[in-house]
Structure formats: C-alpha cells, structure tokens
Amino acid sequence: MPPLHAQRILALFLPHLATDRLRRRDRRAGSAMADAGQGAAAGAGQGVPAAGNAGPGKGAGACQGQQEAGEGETLLVCAGQRGNAMALTGLSPSAAARGLRLGQPLAEARALFPGLDVRQEDAAADRQWLEQLADWCDRYTPLVACDRPDGLLLDITGCAHLFGGEASLLAQVLREIGALGLHAKAAIADSAALAGAVARFGPGGVIAPGEGRAALAPLPVAALRLEAGVVTALHKLGLRQIGALLDAPRAPLVRRFGPDLLRRLDQALGAQGEPISPRRPVAPVSAERRLLTSIDTVETILSLVAPLAEAFLPQLEERGTGGRLFELVLFRVDGIVLRLSAGTSAPLRSPARIAALFSARLANPQTVLDAGFGFEIVRLNVLHDGPYKTEQGRLQGASGEAEAGELSLGAFLDSIAARFGDHFLLVGTHRESHLPERAVETLPAARALLAPAQGRAAGQTLSPVFARPHRRPIRLLDPPELMEAFAAEVPDGPPAAFRWRRLRHQVRHAEGPERIAPEWWRDGQGAATRDYFRVEDEEGYRFWIFRDGFYDAAHLPRWYMHGFFA
User: Fold this and answer.
1) Nearest to 200 by CA among 231, 180, 222
2) What pLDDT, on the 0 to 100 scale, is given for residue 31?
C-alpha cells in the first residue's frame, strides 16, 4: 500500500473517443426510432429493441467492440482537413485493427476500403463529450482534469480505499465506462506523466510506488510527450525506448535536444512535480447517496435532500460555518450529470430550509430536469460557506418577534431567489464614482439586505440611494441622451431653451452649475468636465441636464439630458 502522503493519479485514455461518440449517438437515435416503431405497432412484438433501449446498464456496452468487429460491413472513421487534403482523425476499433492509422490520407484509406463509413470531424463535439465524461468521473474523485484531446486525469490520492483498493477501483472504472459503450485504457501511478504514458503506450494497470522506472523503460520515447521533431531525431540516433535515456549522460542530451527532454523524463519519474488543474473546485463539505435502484421523480429526489443535509451537518458544526451556496449533483445512469445550485442570504444549516431551497428551485418553470433512464447517485455539496453565529432564541417579547421576523425575511428572499433567480428582487446601492450613472447599482435583495458584507464589490455602500449631499432626480437615463441647446449663456450659464426628443422646451427657471470632474483613471486624460443644471420649463416639468466640456474657440460642447425630477 502506498504511503498516505504519496500522490496517486489515475490516467484514462480514450483512443476511439470520436467514433465511440458517433456510435453512441447512432445507437440512441436507433433506440428512439425503435421506440416509435413499437408504439406504431401497438405492441405487436415484431420489433427488436436497440442496444441502447434499456439504457446503458451494466454490461450494455461491454460487447460493442466484438459486435462491431463481427459485423465487418462498414469501418467507421472520422476525417478532417489537414493541409490541402483530407486525413483520418478518428478510428473505430475495427478500423484500427484493419490497418488504418491516424493522419492517413482519406483517399488512400478509401482506395483500400471502398465501403468506408466516413464522418466529418467535429472537434467541438468531442471536447464537449470529454467534458461530460469528466463530470461522470466526478463519482470517483472531485479532482478530475481533462488531458486533451482524448484523456482524463483523476487524482485518487486518499480515496482508493473507498472502492476496495486501487486495483478494484481501476477495474470498476473500466467496467463502468465500458458499459457506456466506450473503449478505454487506464493506469494508476505516482505522477500524471507516468500514468498517462503507461495508459497510452503501455499495458495499463497499477504501477506501485517505486516501480516507475521499470514501467517506463520498455515504452517508446513518444510516451514522454515530446515534440515530433525531437522524437524523429532520437529515432535517428537509435534511441527508440525510454530505457535508453534513463542511464544516458544528461549533459549531451541537454546540448543536443534542449532541457525539455529531461524535464519530461523527470516528470515521468516523479522527480519533478507536474500539477494538474481540476475542472471544478473541491467542495469543502459534501454528502452523497448511491442508490440501489435509479430514481426519476422530483418528489423522490427532494426526499433525499434533507437527509443529505443532515449527513454533513456535523462537518459544518466542526468548521463553525453554515452553507452559503449549495449544489445538488444528479448522476444519470447514462453518464449525464445534472447540477442545480441554490444560494442563501445568510449562512444556513437547517436541513428543512435547504430542502425548501431546492423545492423552490425545481418549481421554477425554467428548470428542466431530464431524468432520462433515472439517477443512480445523488450528491449535495456546499460550494461556499461562511461563519455561522449560534444564538439562543428568546421565548417571547418584542426582540424575539424581531428575530423571528428576520428569519422569515431571509427564508422569503431565499425562496424567491431559488424559484425565480437572484435578480428577481433588487435593491439600489451606491458605488464610489463621480459620474451619476456609475454611482448607482443594483444588487440582489438577499445579499444586499441580509448579508451586506458578502458578495459586495469594492466601493459599494448600502446607504439609501436618495441620501446624497446634492439633490438628484428620481429617474436617470443611462446613457444620457443628446439634446440641442439654444442661446446658452456662456461660459457657465444654462440654455434659454432646448429641444429633446423632437420637443422644444423653454427654460423658465434654472439652478447651477454643479461641476463634476471626469474620472481620468477610467476614461483617460481627454475626458470632459460636466456642468449640471436643474431646469424647469414653462409647463412646470423639471429636468437634469449637463454640458459636456467648456466653450472655447476650437470646441463646441454638447448638451445632454440625464434625468427627470418629480
């Protein structure tokens, strides 16, 4: 057994990622057509269910390679533009077994196999499918990284014992990913480079600590992820296997091939670290339930939320925190992972209120919960937590009622935010800015009213919007609208009349100017100074207008309408 501090990485290699994705898509489409045909036949029993009709149950896709090789009618490949010609970019297992290779010209492949089934390369779909597989691997460890274009890296340090050991975990990963209809190789080692090299170029399996050197020796030098030119140069010197580099003098290798060769070699040996970047941050607190039978109803899912919240309650108490942002992760049996999140206005521990958040979240018409063939794993994460202040409640009295009212307000805001979204209820706030259109901002009410210290950008204050040293209109235009001014008293006076939105207004009274300096650190040194005026026309309407800049021989400033008073 490896020491507790040793890093252990599981590398998953998917050599037929593109063609497996296409086979899986075709199988699902055939299953849908078979279902439609069976419905039209009204249960006549003449149709044969497609391979994916029962979902990717255990063993459903395990014989895909045998079935494909046995058909022998079409060889599935992907092709894309490479230079001035089309080349093979993806091979099915049977196509690879018949001698086709990646990078081979498509014309040559068609000459060898006239019945070749050629599909257009779709790199974006392949990347998306790899991301979905990374989500699926989250059931084994929260530290999953993509090793593009056709691999995954799982940091299983300290969690292999949950699956019966590393060998048992490796067998389970290969068995379950085969049930999804995918072909894969995998290896576990002390470093990502070693595990990836053995998975891609070796037999796979578990490489025990201290056996990395022996595992690397028979592998080709290309397993070190070197540039093609370096691999070719090494081959010309007769250095085809990594074992020939292990005992070679290092100084000549650096002079001939540069430092990258030894860096890659040291990473594979574990002598130099190579951090992996997980796709998602690790939740500080989490609880999950693995189900014996899949579930597919909202009621059943919600019935598990409160028990899961009860399960991680001791962890929150030990940390002295409460949850601020919760995530419900649902693992479908066909490999799709659904994630629902719900935030709170203040740190929360109550399982009943956590369950109520997701009940409101699922009640939102915009929340589409596609259960597919059902969910087999339900996980509840606390993505963000905050200090939780435990207080003794009062039995009665005004202050006790106020405390109850505060809790009720928090529950109300949390429910509204979960059901309709964070920005359904907004509160006006101030930001430190000279310009009026930048000085006002809105925040979600749950964050602004009950937890002002959380989620507030620098420079924001929660004082009322109208509490300003200068009077401001009740409505601002953002952005200010250009208008035409007439007979303005220069250099600092207001206009005698102005035209805005095709209507002419004669100014009867005016106050100002109120000069506002530009924010040169945002808008540059050329930004103009504004002179604001409060004006009233002959019909009693009051406006807030400003002149952008000063009058001079070379510049005629523009006038803008910025707001209205009551």
Assistant:
1) 222
2) 64
